[in-house]
Amino acid sequence: MSTPSQPERDHLLVSEIHGEARHYAARRELTADERAAAVAALRELAGGRADLLAEVAGLMEGVAEGQPNEPLIRQAAQLCRDAGADPELIPGWVEEGRPAGAAPAWPGRLSGGCVLGGSPGLHGPDVLALAHFSAGSDQRRKPTAAVSCLSRIDRFFDSRAE
After folding, report:
1. What is the DSSP track for 138-158?
2. ∠ Cα 69 28 151 (to 5°)
3. How far apart are CA 149 and CA 2, in angstroms?
4. pLDDT, tens digit, for every residue of 40-51?
5. Which residue range forms the structural domain that includes residue 48?
6. How many angstroms from the chain centroid is the CA of residue 97?
7. 17: Cβ contacts below 8 Å, ≥ 6 apart
8. Could you report the per-residue pLDDT of 78-136, keeping only the tens digit for each?
């Protein structure tokens, strides 16, 4: 098995950051201690990659617009901002994350080539990383497809939590 390229490692780290931010987001205001722990964990995970924190924050904000889980996703995006996301890069990623006018394929099932299931051992960041790669594993980034897939996975997990 070959060593992942830098773009592949970035894809994985983006997926991990996304999963971690979603893990810490809650359907309520976070306490100061919870927020501090979340920001510290995201900062450590990102390892100084303000660009990737910005990517996650922006994509989350773009995808969340008008969705029922928008407050939860915006809270996760704010955690990425607080962890040191580059504020100059976020607006471009917000635009990238906005749906292209079509309504999301939900409820019912995940669609559009989004991978979920099939391997019971996959969960949390593993599923998110798989989704990210299923949307574009070649050398080029395909953030819109990945975000669409991640958004569907978010809604899937949100619906199971309710």
Report:
1. SSS--HHHHHHHHHHHHHHHH
2. 20
3. 26
4. 999 999 999 999
5. 6-161
6. 10
7. 42, 45, 46, 52, 53, 56, 80
8. 999 999 999 999 999 999 888 765 344 333 333 344 433 333 333 444 344 444 443 43
Query: End-to-end CA distance of the chain, in Å?
Result: 40
**51 Cβ contact list (under 8 Å, min separation 6):** 86, 89
Amino acid letter at 120? P
Distance CA 147, CA 94 (A): 11
In a domain, 1, yes or no: no
| Residue 101 identity | G
pTM, 2 dp:
0.65
* Number of domains the chain is built from: 1
Alpha carbon distance 50, 109 (integer Å): 34
